[in-house]
Amino acid sequence: MNRNNVSTIDLVNKSLQKRYRAEKRFRAYGIAAILFGLACLSVLFTDIISKGHSAFLQTYVYMDVKFDAQQLQIIDPTDENQLAMADYQGLIKKSLRTQFSDVTGRRDKRDLYSIVSNGAGFTLRSMLEDDPSLLNQTVGVWLLVDDDIDTYVKSRNSDGSDAFTARMKDKQIVWVESLISEGHIKKRFNTTFFTSGDSREPEQAGIAGAIAGSLFTLLVTIALSFPIGVAAAIYLEEYAPTNRFTDFIEVNINNLAAVPSIIFGLLGLAIFIGFFEMHRSIPLVGGLVLTLMTLPTIIISSRAAIKSVPPSIKDAALGLGASKMQVTIHHVLPLAMPGMLTGAIIGFAQALGETAPLLMIGMVAFIVDIPGGVTDPATALPVQIFLWSDSPERAFVERTSAAIMVLLAFLITMNTLAIWLRKRLERRW
Amino acid sequence: MDTSLLFLVALLLFVATFYMGKKRALTLAGGQSNVRSLNSLPSYYGTITALWCAIPCILLLAVWTIFDDYIIQQIIVQEFPIDIQQMSKSDIGLLLNTVSNLATSSSADPNVEAYIIVAAQRFNNLQWLSQMALNLVFVCVAILFVSYARLRINVKLHARVEVETVFKWFLLMCASLAIFTTAGIILSVLFESIKFFQSVPITEFLFGLDWSPQMAIREDQVGGSGAFGAVPLFAGTMLISLIAMTIAVPAGLMAAIYLSEYASPKVRTVVKPMLEVLAGVPTVVYGFFAALTVAPFIRESGGLFGLSVSSESALAAGLVMGVMIIPFISSLSDDVINAVPQSLRDGSFGLGATQSETIKQVVIPAALPGIVGGVLLAVSRAIGETMIVVMAAGLAANLTANPLESVTTITVQIVTLLVGDQEFNSPKTLSAFALGLMLFVVTLIFNYIALIVVKKYREQYE
């Protein structure tokens, strides 16, 4: 009986505590979700940076090398043929032997030689090419070390502990430690990484070829997708009649925007390479595929930009006697351009980070040369990351992370540019 | 004069014809003072003249560059000795390659047979001939069309209308490219898939439980006969997508709700772009992160609990993919939640509901169709995502629902089947296109439903 006397407000007051707790919980879930996202972001970036920062330094070893004409079999140091044929690696071996004169036995010697990178001979060769008078002189040079030694030196604390020895032999560690104590090992900024193409040897591998390939691919994409995308957007916003055909175009564009990128790769493989018989692995085909992929994004953002131009401006121009094309070119386009550029740059950033379609059209080949045009075989930066990430050497892990940092730097620059453009140039009506 | 130089000449020619047309119109009108007697502005006369010259010339250059290699090759093949002509197509292709290499390089290899040297000389000869003929035809075409366009110019010519018609057709062509792309995708995957289904029955592909596409190429080789049952791939794709969605949907949705309902504008302007950075990170970076950081971490922490976790577990790939999709879901949900009219919220608050009650009982139900559409788009993204699974998921086609084991997906198999050397007509290669077809059809269905749902929802509140 008593229960009937309880009024509604009492019930509400009773439940309030619970409801407020639920409210707090719900809020906490929201904050947790955001914190989770941000935590993932920071873990991702810290992980990449902590793995990759060391790749920007490279270990070099100091050596006195005598350009012995007899050993090199060079008679005339201006003759390119003789310079090209000479055995520079032999000079390095000889200089290593003199420095570590106690090393005997074939296997030990081989271990000793493998301290220095097998690409170090090229450094000597280009020195001699630049200055033929070096012949028969003894010069102190800093040479690239092998990637195992590089990893060892980088991972080692200043007192020599905690070092990552990988495939190094105990003797090699002793030799390297003695070199370090003599001050003959030094870390310098890794210019090789930014100036050379791919290589099987981590210490000689660089991203210049991949960056050039990405650049050419992106140039093709920009040159094609921006004009075509803007033209399509103008047609759909300003000219298209409302009929089935226009609807069909719109459905296609919206759908293409959500088609997985790998499907565009299949398209490129079947049409451009299979049907038109274009070459594999060239930036031209990559650019064409990425053009088709980014077009929907550019069309959609350009349409939004055109829509935001107030009709009053168009009406005023039309009223003064301008034709439709004149209104579009003289008024709508310039006013919509910042918005279009913003959308386009974001689309290009997507294209720059895209990997899967490029795998399909064969831009995964091992290419050492830096491409010089859109028809030279090439890889792209994201594909290079994919290729290196497969390599077991620790030195490649560090280089992969460094390449990712370079790629992210490009993307951040492009996106910042887009945001800046939007803030700077976009007008609110 | 080679083709690139010809292009340059053509460009100069177009500029020149523009000024010629403009000047001609002005002369006909009787000078700048009488410009009003012209039908259109003088520059339109220039443009239409240039277009009359440019369109045929560009068509000519395009057609010529596409076909001249093919025709030259045909002539060379016909001049090969009879026994060589009867060789298989691929051998002849190799020979033609040798010929063109020899023709472009100056050094003569003494080991080449005589007929190849003859063919190489002939090749150079024909190329020179083709170039000369192109130059000649180009000049003739240019002169012909320019003089015709010049003759057409008179005071009454509706130059502006003509230019605008061309302009409109150009715009229409650009817009229709989307249709051609879709058609190209469908045709390219469909044709190869049909070829594949001629050797492997479609029922086996759709319902078979065994996937091992390695096939013996020659009769005497040891190797599997190849099994093309794609069910393990579908199951693996679904498993990884499911893991991804269980991460992404709650996190993305709650983030969107917090940002649009609770957060102050200040927090919103900082946090929203930061979450969107996650969407801008290339998938290859996520793949690297999943393979080198998350997968070992999961394996080790699984080991602590005595679980044996595969180093290419579905969990690692799914988790990272989920993180990738969070911003996708949160920004789509954010849009639809913002589109819910404020009056609905105010009504609920007026009845005494707390904010979370309003969100749970009013805002979310009202926004549900839009959210579902967004989730469907996200599922389609997860199914089609390639790099994360290629780098972090396995290659072996296990039919399992255990997220700690290694599974493979449709996209992983497409990549493994098509990267590297391949024979174009083996079922192994063709099966990749059949998988591509499945992927396209499935994502198409998801996208289509999602787009319809989102569109309906938008109309509801507009």
Automatic annotation (TrEMBL), chain A:
CDD domains: TM_PBP2
Protein name listed in UniProt: Phosphate transport system permease protein PstA
ABC transmembrane type-1 domain span: 211-418
UniProt-listed InterPro entries: DUF3333 (IPR024573), MetI-like (IPR000515), MetI-like_sf (IPR035906), Phosphate_PstA (IPR005672)
Species in which this protein is naturally found: Aliiglaciecola litoralis
Superkingdom classification of source: Bacteria
PANTHER family referenced in this protein's UniProt entry, alphabetically: PHOSPHATE TRANSPORT SYSTEM PERMEASE PROTEIN PSTA, PHOSPHATE TRANSPORT SYSTEM PERMEASE PROTEIN PSTA-RELATED
Keywords carried by this UniProt record: Cell membrane, Membrane, Transmembrane, Transmembrane helix, Transport
Pfam families: BPD_transp_1 (PF00528), DUF3333 (PF11812)
TM stretches of this protein: 26-45, 207-236, 256-276, 282-306, 327-349, 402-421
Membership in a protein family: Belongs to the binding-protein-dependent transport system permease family. CysTW subfamily.
UniProt topology in membrane: Multi-pass membrane protein
Subcellular location: Cell inner membrane; Cell membrane
Automatic annotation (TrEMBL), chain B:
CDD domains reported for this sequence: TM_PBP2
Transmembrane segments: 44-67, 132-149, 169-191, 233-259, 279-298, 305-329, 432-454
Keyword Membrane: yes
Annotated keywords: Cell inner membrane, Cell membrane, Membrane, Phosphate transport, Transmembrane, Transmembrane helix, Transport
Subcellular location as annotated: Cell inner membrane; Cell membrane
Coiled-coil portions: none
Gene3D superfamilies: MetI-like
Its membrane topology: Multi-pass membrane protein
Ribosomal protein in keyword set: no
Domain ABC transmembrane type-1 stretches: 234-450
Pfam family, one: BPD_transp_1
Family annotation (InterPro entries): MetI-like, MetI-like_sf, Phosphate_PstC, PstC_N
Its biological purpose: Part of the binding-protein-dependent transport system for phosphate; probably responsible for the translocation of the substrate across the membrane.
Family, similarity comment: Belongs to the binding-protein-dependent transport system permease family. CysTW subfamily.
Protein name listed in UniProt: Phosphate transport system permease protein
